[in-house]
Amino acid sequence: MSKLSPSLLALVQSFFQSHLRAVRGASDHTVRAYRDALRLFFLFAAQHLRRPIAELHLDDIRSEVVLAFLDHIETARGNGPATRNCRLAAIRSFVAHLLRHDLTRAEQYRRILAIPAKRAQIRTPTYLEPEEARALIAQPDPSTSGGARDLALLLFLYNTGARVGEALALRRGDLYLGRPRQVRLHGKGGKDRSCPLWPETAQALRALMERDNSDIASVAEVFRNARGAPLTRDGVAYLITKYARLAAQTAPGLRRRRITPHALRHSCAVALLQAGVDLTVIRDYLGHVSVATTGRYLSSNMEMKRHVLEAFWNRAGIAKQPHRPWRPAASTLAFLASL
């Protein structure tokens, strides 16, 4: 992007540095996703228009180029509708920023903002049943430094339903392991929320921090690797995959699924629903903006659907009434035998 024309480059820089960071309070994950989407778009635009990327101008940010790019990522790159929509959302956010600073091309930008998202099938969230989650959490060896960290991490993710980014951003000062045991999570858009902690989770976190040097500041990250650096997303994904493979020996259902860090967040949500917790409470617990997002978990749990259907069946009065089977009298049998 450093080779873009000055006017376009200035607006790209202000979009990332001023708008996303300062105005929207976007997370590092969102910034990286938007960066990758716009990078792909600019590379495609330069190739599509047959000019060096250094010669791209604001006049080139047109709806025809955006539509061609969206078609390209589906056909040439093999991306699905969901990825297409994510790329489009990043471009539309950038174009809305252009519109605020460049009204002379308002109609050009309006056409891009009018491009609709493609309807995509919503995938059923992958989650663990409680017994599967227990099998996963039982795998780390807490007698080792790495095992103590991994046990605390798995318990924390399942207990709080935290996003992996929220867990990796967790600092010692965010934890209160006395009574009441709780943690302050820093969510999307700079929104904080507090979650209670199980005694087992608090104990595992306390044991983890006692293994570390006592002079580590309260601002230090809780989950770190063997070199003392903060764990990465890839590192957490590797650990969960490793333990899921081990847990599959006692929980065969894990063999058929790809268990990711986000699957523990889904598992927390489904477990709360199964416990009868209200959707609005779960929404606040997980840090969802809309209760509709939380409602996806309700539609994904087959066991809860069975309970609802059974209750509906009984309430409707359609269930068969118990009855005694007919048995012929002895005299009837004697009469038939005499024929």
TrEMBL record:
GO terms for biological process: DNA integration; DNA recombination. Pfam families: Phage_int_SAM_1, Phage_integrase. It comes from the Bacteria. Residues 123-310 form the Tyr recombinase domain. InterPro entries: CB, DNA_brk_join_enz, Integrase-like_cat_sf, Integrase_catalytic, Integrase_recombinase_N, Integrase_SAM-like_N, Tyrosine_recombinase_XerCD. One of its GO terms (molecular function) is DNA binding. Keywords: DNA integration, DNA recombination, DNA-binding. Residues 6-99 form the Core-binding (CB) domain. PANTHER family: PHAGE INTEGRASE-RELATED, TYROSINE RECOMBINASE XERC. This is Site-specific integrase. It comes from Eiseniibacteriota bacterium.
